[in-house]
Amino acid sequence: VQLQAFGGGLVQPGGSLRLSCAASGRTFTNYNMAWFRQAPGKEREFVAGITWNLGTTVYADSAKGRFTISRDRAKSTVTLQMNMLKPEDTAVYYCAARTMGFETRSAAYPAWGQGTLVTVSS
């Protein structure tokens, strides 16, 4: 499976940004998709995840109430809508995919997109 993330950029605190991940290479039945992020000097961390079939979502505490993950099965895309952004949301954001159950550990995901930089600054 190939993943391509895009949509990052510079946004002011309190602003919004929409990230998209285009998936290709196979059908995604039974896949679990997720967004991770990695800030400079920090480990990669889970942000949000969604199951391809049912659309069940899971969020990190830092994302709850501000971020929304969704998927469009017809277009094979996963989107992360980020609202009320904070400077601490600054990071490179990655989309990832795996089968066989949902995970929040980055090591459990074999497929990754190239990452897109989100900078929250005034």
Mean pLDDT: 93
**Amount of beta strand:** over 45%
State the helical fraction.
under 10%
Computed Rg: 13 Å
What is the CA-CA span between the terminal residues?
Answer: 37 Å
- Elements, N to C (H/E): EEEEEEEEEEE
Number of helices: 0
Please identify the structural class as seen in this structure.
Answer: mainly beta
Poorly predicted runs are none
Structure summary, number of beta strands: 11
Structure description:
This protein is mainly β. 0% of the residues lie in helices and 49% in strands. It is built from no helices and 11 strands. The strands form 2 sheets. Strands 2, 4, 5, 6, 9, 10 and 11 form a 7-stranded mixed beta sheet that branches. β4 and β5 form a beta hairpin. The chain is globular, with a radius of gyration of 13 Å. It starts with a strand and ends with a strand. The mean pLDDT is 93.
Kindly list the characteristics that best describe this protein.
122 residues, mainly beta, 7-stranded mixed sheet, 4-stranded antiparallel sheet, 0% helix, globular
Sum this structure up briefly.
This protein is mainly β and 122 residues long. It has strands at residues 2-6, 9-11, 17-24, 32-38, 45-51, 57-59, 67-72, 77-82, 91-98, 111-112, 116-120. The protein is globular.
Write the layout of secondary structure elements.
Layout: E1 2-6, E2 9-11, E3 17-24, E4 32-38, E5 45-51, E6 57-59, E7 67-72, E8 77-82, E9 91-98, E10 111-112, E11 116-120
Parallel strand pairs: 2-11
Antiparallel strand pairs: 1-3, 3-8, 4-5, 4-9, 5-6, 7-8, 9-10, 9-11
